[in-house]
Amino acid sequence: MIQTEQHDTIRVLVIGNPPVNALGAAMRRAIAAEMSAALADDSVSAIVLRGAGTLFSGGADITEFGRPPESPWLPELLDDVEASDKPVIAALHGTAFGGGLELPLACHYRVAAPSARLGLPEVKIGLLPGAGGTQRLPRLVGIADALSMIVSGNPITAARAHEIGLVDRIVDEQRLTEEAVAFARDIAVPQGVRRTSEIAVAPAPGVIEAFVEKQGAKLRGLDAPNACIKAVRDASTLPFREGLASERETFLELAKGRQSQAMRHLFFAERAAARIEGLPKDAPTLPVARVGMVGAGTMGGGIAMNFLSAGIPVTMVEREQAALDRGVATMRKNYERTARSGRLTTAQVETAMGHLTPTLDFQALADCDLVIEAVFENLDVKKAVFRQLDGIVKQGAILASNTSYLDVDAIAAVTSRPEHVLGLHFFSPANVMRLLEVVRGARTSPTVLATAMALARKVGKIAVVSGVCHGFIGNRMLEPRQRQADALALEGVRPQDVDRVLLEFGFPMGPFQMIDLAGLDLGWDEAHSSGSTIREILCENGRRGQKNGRGFYDYDENRNRVPSVEVEGWIRDFAARKGVAPRAVADQEIRERLLYTMVNEAAKILDEGMAQRASDIDTVWINGYGWPAQTGGPLFWADGIGLDTVIAGLEAHADRLGRDAEISPLLRRKAKEGGLTGPA
Ligand code: NAI
Predict the structure, then answer these.
(1) Residues 120-145: what's their mean pLDDT?
(2) Are residues 241 and 331 in the same domain?
(3) How many domains does the chain have?
(4) In whole angstroms, how far apart are CA 434 and each of 12, 208, 427, 529, 568?
């Protein structure tokens, strides 16, 4: 587990626990033993700690969560490391996350290779750094930078860590051990130990208040980030030991809480989603060296950017030059915006765009390994495109559709290679949103499926497998929610009140805001529009959503929304024509009808085998539709409130639910068996 090397009087401990050098109980015991040995050995003047392989350490062993802690605890081990009277130097490369950064914080010095990424991501699983991180980091880098790192959970680069004083020296990765040893000999030994806990936190009046002022609204109701803020405040007001005790207490409280359980559920859910039932982890995949894109519209451009950013060349075809030019210009504009924000260099923008071959010539797709279609959402149009692709693109290549709803099997059937066809449903904006639904057709081959999953991982997407059904997992569940939202509007609930209930639940936007954002005219057919739905009435009256400043809401030039009295009037008139009498509806009913019907639909999706597992559904709704992460997703949430409660709610509202009243037999069964999500 630990290899030791002796370089003159410097003892180097190489921690090796593949794949991420996790600091599980056995590793903690090994570090403690090697530290004691080095301290007892008179020939040792200083100790260097580094990771084996490509990283320092990914942190705690997450499988230890929920189990009784085994001695030594990480906080105890780190206290002992810090108490060492011989200087201890951490030499970092690759990842130093969570406990894997708290350990270096307890060392007396830190050097890092440029590849190092340093972060405390605990907040992302509903926790706070629980091994002194909240107390030591502010002492090294000050309140402002510590707050931003701990509350966001996002890692920083080695260069940034050096800038803020977290790292003492940047060293060469190839010579990590040698340069750390040189640092130990030339700096650490002469200067002696430098205990982080003994450093005073630099006064930073008003910094925490300003941070809360800026972030407060976003963090309302979220246990972990607020606990992180409190812990950093403690670091500036309490003696180290008291701050540490308070950190520990808060950590244990958070770990017991439902929010942290929910976020850990999601952590495991995302990993489980990558597993395909019946396929070995190392199932063979096809090489994808060049991707073809058909359609350079909203989705085509965004999808292409994923591959370009990962260094995979893309050939993009359109049916007309103007659309192609527009698509390419939008991609460039998006890249340049990212460059202006500092997340890309201009050289990286040029490299990415340099990988793009825009053309009107379909023949140019011939040697692509994967071609993704993102043309209009119309089955006949898509079939025509797939027939054409099948004749042009080399045999063995994969053909994928980005369709939102259509029958992938029907599309596959027009080709001579249905086993090489599948759906790749990206979410808008496709260069930003991490979710990807991988739609497995009836005849999609396991190799093609495995290739799609591996490629998704390579371009940083969270892929979830769905079967072929109308709307797949995500959009299928959106439909009952929208049906209920529309029905509630007819019953006299104002759109802004429907939206408000979901905002209060934690969604970033409600159903009517979402329609305004996507565009009311998406799928609207002007020629056949006959005022038969609220949406048609709005479209016919020139309300297209945010894009023209008028939808269910009115928007000003800064896209601030105000409810529309005009729209309320139309809805009232429409309801009267339909004979629906207005009634007072409590928020609880709104919430139950919107959300319980989704849970019910999810149970049907599971029952039909359209999703592989309940946690996949949570992954889809958290990453694709803004379901509040702290609840763990629709099914973890439903299990929390009790499936009996969900069923009782559906039954209570049955008369008003229309086609959503039919309760899934699986939901009833799982209510008896104790839940849908079960152990992750
Ligand atoms: P869009 O209208 O922005 O772009 C479609 C593009 O395809 C247009 O530029 C058009 O010129 C081009 N096109 C049409 N027929 C073509 C053909 N035969 N050959 C080459 N190019 C052709 O549409 P958008 O929004 O990008 O949607 C594309 C697909 O992605 C649809 O299936 C849609 O359902 C799906 N989708 C859309 C999402 C969205 O939020 N807009 C989200 C997820 C999927």
Answers:
(1) 97
(2) no
(3) 4
(4) 40, 31, 8, 35, 36
**Across residues 291-298, what is the average pLDDT?**
96
Task: Report the relative pairing of strands 10-15 and 2-7 from DSSP bridges.
Answer: antiparallel
Query: Is position 273 within any domain?
Result: no
Cα(51)–Cα(14) distance, integer angstroms: 5
Distance 417 CA to ligand 1 centre (A): 23
Note whether 40 and 150 are same-domain residues.
yes
Q: Among 293, 334, 376, which residue has the most ligand 1 atoms within 8 Å of its CB, making it the best to mutate?
A: 376
Handedness of CA 273, 279, 280, 284 (dihedral sign): negative
- Active-site amino acid positions: 102, 122
325 with 461, same domain: the answer is yes
Residue 431 alpha carbon to ligand 1 centre in Å: 15
Q: How far is CA 158 from CA 15, 167, 511, 647, in A?
A: 20, 7, 42, 52
pTM to 2 decimal places: 0.90
Looking at the fold, whether 135 and 207 belong to one and the same domain comes out as yes
pLDDT (tens digit per residue) in 475-501: 999 999 999 999 999 999 999 999 999
Q: What is the CATH number of the domain that holds 87?
A: 3.90.226.10
**Does 334 fall in a domain?**
yes
List, chain by chain if needed, residues with CB within 6 Å of any ligand 1 atom: 294-300, 317-319, 323, 374-377, 381, 385, 402-404, 426-428
The model's pLDDT over 554-605, given as tens digits with 9 standing for 90+, comes to 999 888 999 999 999 999 999 999 999 999 999 999 999 999 999 999 999 9
Instruction: Report yes or no on 477 lying in a domain.
Output: no
Can you give the pLDDT at residue 679?
54
**Mean pLDDT, rounded, of the chain:** 96
C-alpha 379 – ligand 1 centre gap (Å): 12
**Whole-angstrom Cα distance, residue 601 to residue 672?**
18
pLDDT at 218: 86
Residue 64 lies in a domain: yes
What is the average pLDDT across 135-154?
Answer: 97
Domain co-membership, 406 together with 547: no
| Owning domain of residue 637 | 587-673
